[in-house]
Amino acid sequence: MSAKANLAAFAGGVMFAAGLIVSGMTKPSKVVGFLDVFGRWDPSLGLVMVGAIGVHFVAYRLVRRRSAPIFGKTFHIPSRTDIDTRLWTGAAIFGVGWGLAGYCPGPALVASGAGISSALIFVAAMTIGMMIERHVIGASASGIARRSIADRGRRNP
Amino acid sequence: MHDFTPTAALIGGGLIGAAASLVLLTHGKVAGVSGLYGGLLRRDTTDLAFRIWFLSGMVLTGFVGSAIFPSAFASSWNANMPALVVAGLLVGVGTQIGTGCTSGHGVCGVSRLSLRSLVATLTFVLAGMFTVFVVRHVLGGSQ
Q1: Which of A53, A87, B3, B71 has the fewest beta carbons closer than 10 A?
Q2: How many domains does chain A have?
Q3: pLDDT band at residue B131, thresholds of 50, 70 and 90?
Q4: pLDDT by residue (tens digit) across A36-71?
Q5: If residue A148 lies in a helix (H) or strand (E), which one and from where to where?
Q6: In B, which residues are within 8 Å of A10 by CB distance?
Q7: Which domain holds residue A107?
Q8: What is the ipTM of this complex?
Q9: Where are the domains of chain B?
Q10: H or E stretch covering A47
Q11: Do B16 and A137 touch (CB under 8 A)?
């Protein structure tokens, strides 16, 4: 990969993290404040999603008019449309963890870079969780067939 | 509602959307953090350089950002150690089974109007709200 392509990837990560910092999403209290609809509700996270989706909704359509990305031959966009059990059970498991800690993967990585100890613990546990899924749950008996299907859609979630 | 920060939320959100758009324009990929990070743990990952550069940009920005704006990381609420470990494990397992998190499904997938991502996003938001309800208002723990 060219130096320019690497720089673009790096710049994407910097912008993404800057957005999380500016919007306050690197504070678990802001995230839990949004999820606490029966308490002192803080709708900020909802507006973060509105801002992010608003920009990307338009940009996605403009970019997809191109035949290829700048540094690649094809677009790698998930094409699956099936709503399987794994999708919503996985999302539900993720949601419980998100509510418990107030961290999802992006803000946790940014806060771990900031040296926040709770984020470092969370990221370490998250890494182990990903390995457990891959080697224990994913590799279980009938898992081989399921995995080949899952992997097709898992390319770039 | 006095914690509400609408302007910062919209500006920060716009930056996140712009970052995802930059990744799409330059690399044709989805800026989904759990997928990109999870791919580092696999042997058959082909776009390792892209993933490492993107994720390094995020972590380094956290490092620099904490030096400039330390208050951006000062949370008025923090989970205790056992909760953090359980939460991290659940997020690791759940995002890999459900093929995405807040960025991949919530931002990128919903922007594409992907039905899978809409279902996943609704599910993890409701699961998160239910969890916070149980922890705060039923068990009455942490704060």
Answers
A1: B71
A2: 2
A3: very high
A4: 999 999 999 999 999 999 999 999 999 999 999 999
A5: helix A143-154
A6: 53-54, 56-57
A7: 85-154
A8: 0.96
A9: 77-143
A10: helix A44-63
A11: no
pLDDT in tens, A3-29: 999 999 999 999 999 999 999 999 999
Do A51 and A9 share a structural domain? yes
Beta-carbon separation of A125 and B89 below 8 A: yes
Which residue of chain A has the CA closest to B28? Answer: A75
B88 closest CB neighbour out of A19, A48, A101: A101
Residue linked to tokens 């890494």: A127
Q: Which of A14, A83, A91 sits opposite B94 (nearest CB)?
A: A91
Contact between chains at A48 and B10 (C-beta distance less than 8 A):
yes
Q: Give residue for tokens 């224990």.
A: A136
In the block, which residue shows the tokens 């990560």?
Answer: A13
Residues A48 and A15 in one domain: yes
- Residue A18's pLDDT is 98
The DSSP 8-state label assigned to residue A137 in this structure reads I
pLDDT tier for residue A136 given thresholds of 50, 70 and 90: confident
d(CA B114, CA A123): 28
